């Protein structure tokens, strides 16, 4: 077994003075400047009307005008927009990630942070006292209920595309895909990741196993990505129905939604679907063995707040579930800075 090298610590800035602690207490203000600018449509607006004066922005966004100057100054100081003379433009990173329609757009993340996570974090104490999620949609059949509501479904699909779009370039590089004929993405949503893999590997065939309401978005999305002819959708419940066999089976951003017992069961089911000579690829924002990565610790607390039994977990736990399923050879790799990939190889 390969054990992942200890990652460099990713922590908040060192706290030394009372002012540092006060700044930390108000850190939510930084997030709200970004999330509110997105909700108001500022980044989309400046993406197509740049440069603009404060008066032009106030008018186009339908704002009152009171507070707009401070709001824009705050965004300048956060590095999201720039002020030159009396006109505002987007910074490079904002242009790249916050303007709808750009390849690295993360609007789905922002909507989830603003509408779901921000209110839920206000209930962190309740979650810690009760062990219960703090979002309206959590609980049994949470995914099915969310997918039945068109507005929630659309927001969820965009958010998942943001997540898999960030992982895709790393995953494409991290594994020798050309040595394999087929891939099955278990919980693969509307096929964004499979679509990107098929785009990079013209010989590869791909499939997604997901809940029945995902069938239509899958057809639409894989058609839009130009890979529909090599992509198949299998509808079902991955806890109760057998998974179709493939050379490579993936479980990405899936295990963290479930309790440790459910994760072990899913790994066993996914391992059974791997063809001889194939591999099972599992990725999540896995936790380092010692608490050295604040962003991943926060992702794990997100799972406390939005799921019944979920959390992030160390790669060693994932390797143990693979071993229990019958896998004897595992590898651990970093997948960019945000995710860890565990690979289990099946002998021929
Ligand atoms: C967090 S998303 C992961 C999406 C994608 N794999 C990624 O990396 O971004 C979890 C996916 O699991 C699917 N899912 C949840 N419960 C399921 C079940 N019981 N059977 C099949 N799919 C399920 C959801 O519909 C959703 O697409």
Automatic annotation (TrEMBL):
Protein's UniProt keywords contain Transferase: yes
O-methyltransferase C-terminal domain location: 121-326
PANTHER family: O-METHYLTRANSFERASE CICE (PTHR43712:SF2), PUTATIVE (AFU_ORTHOLOGUE AFUA_4G14580)-RELATED (PTHR43712)
Organism superkingdom: Bacteria
Native source organism of the sequence: Winogradskya humida
Protein name per the record: O-methyltransferase
Cited InterPro entries: COMT-like (IPR016461), COMT_C (IPR001077), COMT_dimerisation (IPR012967), SAM-dependent_MTases_sf (IPR029063), WH-like_DNA-bd_sf (IPR036388), WH_DNA-bd_sf (IPR036390)
Classification of source organism: Bacteria, Bacillati, Actinomycetota, Actinomycetes, Micromonosporales
Key words of the record: Methyltransferase, S-adenosyl-L-methionine, Transferase
O-methyltransferase dimerisation domain span: 23-95
Record keyword Methyltransferase present: yes
């Amino acid at each position: 077994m390969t054990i992942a090298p200890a990652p460099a610590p990713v922590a908040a800035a060192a706290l030394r003075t009372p002012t540092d602690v006060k700044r930390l207490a108000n850190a939510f203000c930084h997030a709200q400047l970004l999330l509110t600018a997105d909700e108001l449509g500022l980044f989309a607006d400046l993406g197509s009307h740049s440069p603009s004066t404060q008066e032009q922005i106030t008018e186009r966004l339908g704002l009152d005008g009171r507070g707009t100057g401070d709001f824009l100054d705050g965004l300048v100081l956060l590095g999201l927009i720039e002020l030159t003379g009396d006109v505002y433009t987007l910074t490079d990173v904002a242009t790249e990630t916050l303007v709808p329609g750009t390849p690295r757009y993360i609007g789905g993340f922002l909507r989830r942070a603003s509408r779901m996570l921000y209110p839920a974090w206000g209930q962190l104490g309740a979650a810690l006292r009760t062990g219960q999620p703090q979002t309206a949609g959590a609980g049994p059949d949470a995914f099915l209920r969310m997918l039945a509501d068109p507005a929630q479904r659309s927001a969820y699909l965009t958010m998942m595309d943001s997540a898999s779009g960030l992982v895709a370039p790393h995953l494409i590089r991290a594994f020798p895909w050309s040595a394999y004929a087929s891939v099955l993405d278990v919980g693969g949503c509307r096929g964004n990741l499979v679509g990107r893999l098929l785009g990079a590997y013209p010989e590869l065939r791909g499939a997604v196993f997901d809940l029945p309401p995902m069938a239509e978005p899958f057809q639409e999305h894989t058609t839009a990505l130009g890979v529909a002819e090599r992509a198949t959708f299998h509808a079902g419940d991955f806890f109760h129905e057998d998974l179709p066999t493939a050379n490579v089976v993936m479980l990405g951003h899936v295990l963290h939604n479930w309790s440790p017992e459910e994760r072990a069961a899913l790994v066993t089911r996914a391992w059974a679907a791997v063809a001889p000579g194939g591999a099972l690829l599992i990725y999540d924002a896995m936790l380092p063995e010692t608490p050295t990565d604040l962003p991943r610790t926060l992702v794990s607390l997100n799972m406390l707040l939005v799921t019944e039994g979920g959390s992030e977990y160390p790669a060693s736990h994932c390797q143990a579930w693979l071993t229990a399923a019958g896998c004897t050879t595992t590898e651990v790799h970093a997948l960019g800075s945000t995710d860890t990939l565990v690979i289990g190889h099946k002998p021929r």
